[in-house]
Amino acid sequence: MSRTECIIATLFVIIWRVQVTLASVTQCKDATYSISNRILANHAFLTKPSPNIEDCVIMCIEHRLCESSNYYRKTKVCELNDKTVISNPEDMVDFEWAIYMTNNVRILPCYDFDFECGRQADICHLKKGGNMCKECGGALGLENGKIPDAAITASSSFNFALAPNRVRLNSPSAWSIANSPRGPHWLQVDLGRIMAIKKVATQGRRIDSHRQWVKSYKVSSREDGGNWAVYMENNAVKVSTTVLY
């Protein structure tokens, strides 16, 4: 693995839960969104005013053609798209005070054991005056510093300016391994308590002379003193690949 493949930072992911009632059975829909100050251009099929991001998320969830959405914070306008960054990465463009959101929806029971909530409880609670569920997920603290530098370690680092703590979202730099092609190379984050990891996203080093990013990665976890367990899907180790935009 080259040094170019080993620059990584972590992008926050926010999870919304929306409560619906189907045949008297209460369920939740999970819609994830991310990517601030970027929009997916040229694919909006519907544009409507929206007082907040939550309403824009709900509009996309409820429209059968909506695959993603753009929300403009200043003008409070919501665009529903029939494509996503996955299908059309070339159409992602910078737009200040906007946010691009995906519509990855799956049905879950509202009664769920969720470590982010800190207890086993009904995770969906209607907010007054709307059908938006109580938020029970969000960024874990790599961007805002809630997770301290001491909790972030790595197999190696190229120098102080590219140390493991530079892995944070919107860091002026990034983390990079030492000049060695041999692995394994790893980045470890101690969350401080048991957490449910909903999503993982990566951000490369966005400097003109050093455009570097991770091409693929695996995720492992463990409790204190336990053995590492690699994340698997369909009885196979899940190897995630990054999307460039």
TrEMBL record:
InterPro entries tied to this protein: FA58C, Galactose-bd-like_sf, Pan_app
Cited Pfam families: F5_F8_type_C (PF00754), PAN_1 (PF00024)
Keyword Transport listed: no
SMART domains to which the protein is assigned, alphabetical: PAN_AP
UniProtKB keywords: Signal
Domain of life the protein comes from: Eukaryota
Residues of the F5/8 type C domain: 133-245
Region forming the signal peptide: 1-23
Residue span(s) of domain Apple: 28-105
Protein name in the entry: Uncharacterized protein
